[in-house]
TrEMBL record, chain A:
Its main location: membrane. One of its GO terms (cellular component) is plasma membrane. Belongs to the binding-protein-dependent transport system permease family. LivHM subfamily. The lineage of its organism: Bacteria, Pseudomonadati, Pseudomonadota, Gammaproteobacteria, Oceanospirillales. This is Branched-chain amino acid transport system permease protein. It comes from Halomonas shengliensis. CDD domains: TM_PBP1_LivH_like.
Automatic annotation (TrEMBL), chain B:
It is found in: Cell inner membrane. This is Branched-chain amino acid transport system permease protein. The lineage of its organism: Bacteria, Pseudomonadati, Pseudomonadota, Gammaproteobacteria, Oceanospirillales. It comes from the Bacteria. Pfam families: BPD_transp_2 (PF02653).
TrEMBL record, chain C:
Residues 1-22 form the signal peptide. This is Amino acid/amide ABC transporter substrate-binding protein, HAAT family. It comes from Halomonas shengliensis. Pfam families: Peripla_BP_6. It comes from the Bacteria. Belongs to the leucine-binding protein family. Coiled coil: none annotated. The keyword Signal applies. Residues 26-352 form the Leucine-binding protein domain. Keywords: Signal. The lineage of its organism: Bacteria, Pseudomonadati, Pseudomonadota, Gammaproteobacteria, Oceanospirillales. PANTHER family: LEUCINE-SPECIFIC-BINDING PROTEIN, PERIPLASMIC BINDING PROTEIN OF ABC TRANSPORTER FOR NATURAL AMINO ACIDS.
Length: 306, 339, 381
């Protein structure tokens, strides 16, 4: 096991983490401000990827596609908020779960209706296809570094938005006292639509960026959604800082576990069994991590409020 | 929890046969009469369909105890459903292969052995998951139960001994002494008895002091605590019983299909069970049955009409959540008498 | 109660005999995956199957199609519906091995014919084989094994091999190694449904392999190929057709070009039946058929050919007619082994850039002639 491989895997984990952060930040923001649990967050990820693929194919420009994916997902998010989500704020979590579960079905099958059953084409653009040399001789794909860069930019942007702007002030006010903010005469429903659209846009951005690396297909948002849930539970629901830390933790632990657990078991078991046991354990690793963290900190690492 | 439907009405339903009682009696009679009629007229497919409905309803009855009566929104009940199924599958596998389980325990295809084991296994799993999960509440609880179920799902997928993702076939339905479980109607009646027992247990439980404490824990756990009762053990016991009922339904379901696979553990199934409970009416004794009938009905009817049936399923669900808050039982039987 | 049950069973039996003999028509039940992830496989099987039935011009064949949404329990329930309510004579359509394992054994045990247009799990070829079960596609190991044999022939000595950690994945690698017969540089298992392969690609880069063989069906293959192309690792890539069908390589784009894959069929395979099939499929549906379409088309034509000599009610005669496999297959020669699984040539294709600027498969040649699965000795029928 060389230091280079370890370094490369750490960057891989970081990249997975930034992608999860884009998903989790929206999820956690929507929960923190509106108290809403949104299972359909993965649908916006899918919408972002599909729109990016469609627009990139039509226009030939990845940047244009990316813009369409981001803004399209935000727009779809705003519409969904106005038509459905808005009716759910005062409902029990149970109703929210059911309604957003229904939205998953509607989005998945609706997308299939519009775009067909086949996966769509979307690749990294030429100008991002290069590599960056790593110390030790390996080369790392530029595109993945760009994703990490975008993730950092979004994290900084969110921090600025929340601590330095009027919108952020209202968000923080809404998090600590939902009734108060209404009493202050702030148009709360517009604030909610904006926050929801922001979350949807970030999910769409994640889908658009990752769509170039993965298969753009119906249902692509679901595995990511569940990972994002783990992230925000670990980080503390409602906390952006927690989402960031949780995302990086989950990304790194998952990546390193997948690589090194089978290797570690090879030291004590025959190779075939080591692979079986190692892979089985690696697939459960982040859930075990979550259970351990919750056993000590039932509200996650940085709980905002329940 | 701001759940408006109290659960106390389940107490002594026999004394006063109001509108709700009538509807409930009619539902049970229908569930029993239709498969018998289908069998007599030579349509065994509908008997099998009714068995499937009955078992899904039974799994939902289990979930309803935790979710409806206990206010614990478990998004991971597929874990117990699947584990129950795997106990039936693994027992049959070792009985068929004549190999021992875990080095020493012989396999068995006797349902009187398999059912208690399935329930015990699910109870233990729920005890472990519940002990960690009940330290949390609200959205944390929803997500952590989901995550634990995913963990079991991935484990079943990647563990090769019992088929991994391919699942495990049960070549011959497991046996119950004195009965021919292969006959569709006999098997349906076994499922039916299981469902009725599960509902009776729920009803008795909710009518007892334990049920009152559980309801109080849901509505206001501070008040319960001032009465000197700690809410967490109450919830944990309800959670474990709930998992055991769902697990037994899973064991029967594996036998009905002659097959168990990780899809019985998937989060979609957890979601569907929740959907069924909510469709029927949360915290209502007969809600799961009505919800299951609707769900299976839609799946069967819409699935034959269009390949985009899940879209319409989604739209229907959305409509129910937004506009029919008491569930279908609420619409059929009116508000709960004590509300 | 038992008596009532028995009475019911008696009535059912009577009714079953009555309907089966009352009609000369043939009813075929197709359960396939038409919704959700990976549904393009089921859609192609269905479309090609219906095309063949339509081309036959026979009015007396009714095909009922149902969507299993890739759920084993739903598939099982639909099978019951077909058997007990619609009383179909023949069933077909299932795409995935795990669904086939859930449905096929009970269908054939109840005396209905099942013809597999895609899945070929090893159990159904070996110890659980059945006289009413015919596989018109392949045994799951075929394509992987053929690639192993072909790579050895081409002089590759140290491939690294990769598959998801589930039965079809471990079987694929075992099948590959069985015919490759040499040492491999390493075996990597991914999680089922995994979307990010950076960790595995880094391991491949760090290994001293001279080639890569992988089995990642559907969306997993798309993700992997895209990330592989972006990684700059320059090993030659090999796989089975499941990761390189016409739909998938169009989604991967240029990154798929150069990869070689084994398939039991190619759209540019040179025989008259195939020319007619590809042309009519393109005309009817406006797309190039995948190998799943070819399998669906062959399945329908096998049924049509067998119906020429017997009705499925005459089980022995119909079974014998199926065994003969006297039809023009789009893949050239086609015959069944003793376990009703095909003995067939496996071809090698290379992904090239087509004239329309989209990648497509080009036939390179035959990888292994007359390949047969290794499970037939276990089959006692």
């Amino acid at each position: 096991m060389s230091a280079t491989l370890l370094l490369e895997q750490l960057i891989n984990g970081l990249q997975l983490g930034t992608m999860l952060f884009l998903m989790a930040s929206g999820l956690t923001l929507v929960f923190g401000v509106m108290g809403l649990i949104n299972l359909a967050h993965g649908a916006f990820y899918m919408v972002g990827a599909y729109l990016t693929a469609a627009v990139t194919a039509a226009s030939g420009s990845f940047l244009l596609g990316l813009a369409a994916g981001l803004s399209g997902a935000a727009a779809v998010g705003a519409v969904v908020e106005l038509v459905v989500i808005r009716r759910l704020y005062h409902r029990p979590h149970l109703d929210q779960v059911l309604a957003t579960f229904a939205l998953i079905l509607i989005f998945s099958e609706g997308t299939r209706w519009l775009f067909g059953s086949s996966p769509l084409w979307l690749n990294t653009p030429e100008w991002l296809a290069g590599h960056v040399p790593l110390p030790g001789g390996a080369r790392y794909p530029l595109y993945r570094l760009v994703i990490i860069g975008v993730g950092i930019a979004v994290a900084v942007g969110l921090w600025w938005l929340i601590t330095r702007t009027r919108l952020g002030m209202r968000v923080r006010a809404g998090e600590s006292d939902r009734e108060m903010i209404g009493a202050l005469g702030i148009d709360i429903s517009r604030l909610y639509t904006a926050v929801f659209a922001l979350g949807a846009g970030l999910a769409g951005l994640a889908g658009a960026l990752v769509g170039a690396l993965q298969s753009v297909q119906v249902g692509m948002g679901e595995p990511v959604l569940i990972l994002a849930f783990v992230v925000i539970v670990i980080g503390g629901i409602g906390s952006i800082k927690g989402a960031l830390l949780g995302a990086v933790l989950v990304g790194v632990v998952d990546t390193l576990g997948r690589v090194f657990l089978p290797l570690a078991f090879r030291a004590v078991l025959p190779p075939a069994e080591a692979t079986d046991v190692g892979a089985a354990l690696a697939s459960m690793l982040i859930y075990i991590l979550m259970a351990v963290i919750l056993a000590f900190k039932p509200r996650g690492l940085f709980a905002a409020h329940d | 929890m701001t759940d408006p439907t109290p659960a106390l009405s389940a107490r002594r339903p026999s004394r006063r046969l109001g509108r709700q009682g009538l509807v409930q009696l009619l539902l049970l009679a229908l569930l029993l009469a239709l498969p018998v009629a289908a069998d007599l007229t030579g349509h065994p497919y509908y008997v099998t369909l009714a068995s499937r409905l009955t078992l899904i309803a039974m799994a939902a009855v289990g979930l309803n105890l935790a979710l409806g009566y206990g206010g614990m929104i478990s998004f991971g009940h597929a874990a117990y459903f699947g584990l129950g199924g795997y106990v039936a599958g693994i027992g049959a596998f070792h009985a068929f292969d004549m190999t021992p389980f875990l080095g020493g325990i012989p396999g068995s295809d006797n349902l009187l052995v398999l059912w208690p084991i399935a329930m015990l296994a699910c109870g233990l799993l729920a005890l472990a998951i519940g002990a960690v999960s009940l330290r949390t509440s609200g959205v944390y609880f929803i997500m952590i139960t989901l995550a634990f179920a995913q963990m079991v799902y991935y484990f079943a997928n990647s563990w090769p001994t019992y088929g991994g993702q391919d699942g495990l076939p049960i070549y011959l339905r497991n046996q119950l002494p004195g009965l021919d479980t292969q006959e569709p109607l006999t098997f349906f009646l076994i499922c039916f008895v299981g469902l009725v027992l599960a509902m009776a247990l729920t009803s008795r439980l909710m009518g007892s002091r334990f049920g009152a404490a559980l309801t109080m824990a849901r509505l206001n756990d501070t008040r319960l605590a001032t009465a000197g009762i700690s809410p967490t053990p109450i919830r944990l016991v309800a959670f474990v019983i709930s998992a055991m009922i769902t697990g037994l339904a899973g064991a029967l379901y594996a036998d009905l299909n002659g097959f168990v696979s990780p899809s019985m553990l998937s989060w979609h199934l957890s979601g569907e069970l929740m959907v069924i409970v909510i469709l029927g009416g949360v915290g209502r004794l007969y809600g799961p049955l009505v919800g299951a009938a609707l769900f299976i009905g839609m799946e069967t009817l819409l699935g034959g009409l269009t390949e985009y049936w899940q879209l319409f399923l989604g739209l229907t669900l959305l409509g129910v959540v937004l506009f029919a808050r008491q569930g279908v039982m609420g619409w059929l039987a009116g508000r709960e008498p004590h509300a | 109660m038992k008596q009532i049950a028995r009475l019911g069973a008696g009535l059912l039996l009577a009714a079953g005999i009555a309907t089966a003999h009352a009609e000369e028509d043939v009813r075929i039940g197709m359960i396939t995956t038409l919704s959700g992830g990976g549904s393009h496989l089921g859609v192609d099987v269905r479309d090609a199957f219906l095309l063949a039935i339509e081309q036959s011009g026979r009015e007396d064949i009714e095909v009922l199609v149902q969507d299993d949404a890739r759920k084993p329990d739903l598939a099982r329930s639909l099978a019951n519906e077909f058997l007990q309510r619609d009383r179909v004579d023949i069933m077909t359509g299932i795409i995935w091995s795990n669904l086939a394992m859930a449905v096929v054994p009970s269908v054939v045990r109840q005396g209905t014919f099942y013809l597999s247009p895609n899945a070929g799990p090893s159990d159904l070829a070996g110890r659980m084989c059945h006289q009413n079960y015919f596989n018109v596609a392949y045994q799951n190991d075929n394509l992987h094994g053929a690639m192993g044999a072909w790579m050895r022939e081409q002089g590759y000595q140290n491939p690294i091999i990769l598959a998801p950690n589930y039965p079809a994945g471990t079987d694929a690698l075992a099948g590959f190694k069985h015919l490759f017969e040499g040492e491999v540089a390493g075996e990597l298992y991914t999680q089922l449904g995994q979307t990010d392969y950076a960790a595995e690609i880094a391991q491949i880069r760090a290994s001293d392999a001279d080639s890569l063989f992988f089995f990642l069906p559907g969306g997993m293959g798309i993700s992997f190929m895209k990330q592989w192309a972006g990684s700059g690792v320059e090993l030659p890539v090999f796989g089975a057709a499941f990761s390189f069908d016409e739909v998938l390589i169009k989604a991967v784009g240029e990154a798929a070009v150069g990869a070689r894959n084994t398939s039991l069929w190619a759209h540019d395979l040179d025989n008259a039946t195939n020319h007619a099939f590809v042309e009519s499929f393109r005309e009817a549906y406006g797309r190039t058929p995948t190998l799943y379409a070819a399998q669906g088309f062959d399945t329908a034509n096998l049924i049509l050919a067998a119906l020429e000599s017997a009705h499925p009610d005459d089980q022995d005669a119909f079974r014998e007619a199926l065994r003969e496999a006297d039809f023009d297959s789009v893949r050239g020669e086609f015959r069944f082994g003793p376990n009703h699984h095909p003995i067939q040539d496996v071809y090698v294709r290379e992904v090239v850039m087509g004239e329309d600027g989209e990648p497509t498969n080009r036939l390179l040649g035959i990888a292994v002639e007359e390949i047969q699965d290794i499970y037939y000795p276990d089959c006692k029928m």
